[in-house]
Amino acid sequence: MNTTRTDAAVRIRGLRKVYGEVTAVEDLDLDIAHGETFALLGPNGAGKSTTVEILEGYRLRTSGEVSVLGVDPARGGLDWKQRIGIVLQSTGETGLLTVTEMLRHFASLYPNPRDVDEVIAAVGLEAKAKTRIAKLSGGQQRRVDVALGIVGRPELLFLDEPTTGFDPEARRQFWGLIRSLKAEGTTILLTTHYLDEAAQLADRAGIIAGGRLVDIGAIDEIGGADARRPIVRWRDAAGTTHEVRTDEPGLHVASVVAEVGREPDGLEVIRPTLEDIYLGLVRDASTGSANEIDDTEEALA
Ligand SMILES: Nc1ncnc2c1ncn2[C@@H]1O[C@H](COP(=O)(O)OP(=O)(O)OP(=O)(O)O)[C@@H](O)[C@H]1O
């Protein structure tokens, strides 16, 4: 095999992609370690699919260095393609074959495929195994896309908005599947607009806006400590809402109770979710302003 194992499964340096007047990706640096699950997050048009498609070898870059499993994707041959799995944002499957037939066909293209029946069970399509793909619902067809992405036992799996159209139960089942792939050592690059999905699955996330990486870090650290500080919120006797960011929400609640002398109205302790932090970072990126943290008690009208 004409590949070299590098430290990172994916290595990107100074990536830039220009479509005519539009700069879709600018000066992007990123490393994804072997075995890591990495989520690339960002609003519509941020440059996620462009980046992922360059890594998959589907799109040529304007400039920069890219290495995927030790190979430049612009020059990746069949042996390299057999080591990666791809679930595109949308696929143009004709749907004439049954689920089993389609998977058998795909499995035959790989040197060490997974067992087709096991893959069908893993994506929850056992009852539809003999159904033509055209007759499946949108969410079921999406599950076929996921099955096709993993049947070749890829070392690196690209998942571009994999659970769009899934019902909540199917999403939970999919998360279990991704965790088992990760446990087997699969490296996963996920793009999703479901921030809970990223929080559930990813070790690290990168947030891209306007083609630039605005933050990157461990899922429980991204955005920094300040953005993650819990908020204590309550209403006073006059009906005014108070909101305080504090590292000691329990102590703050105790002091409010001591002051009010009873259960405070509308008391909440809010721990910012990944979605809250993401929205703050994307807003800051679009306005160009720094994230302002209010340490002081603030009365909200
Ligand atoms: N083939 C193309 N020709 C011209 N412009 C394109 C092309 N593909 C993407 N773009 C532009 O590049 C930018 C990034 O698009 P991209 O599809 O990478 O974003 P995305 O983050 O994947 O968005 P979404 O969340 O909507 O899928 C957008 O401004 C888009 O309009």
TrEMBL record:
GO cellular component, one term: plasma membrane
SMART domains from the UniProt entry: AAA
GO process terms (BP): response to antibiotic
SUPFAM superfamilies xrefs: P-loop containing nucleoside triphosphate hydrolases
MF terms (GO), sorted A to Z: ATP binding; ATP hydrolysis activity
Subcellular location, principal: membrane
Protein topology in the membrane: Peripheral membrane protein
UniProt subcellular location: Cell membrane
Chain ranges of the ABC transporter domain: 10-235
The name this protein goes by in its record: ABC-2 type transport system ATP-binding protein
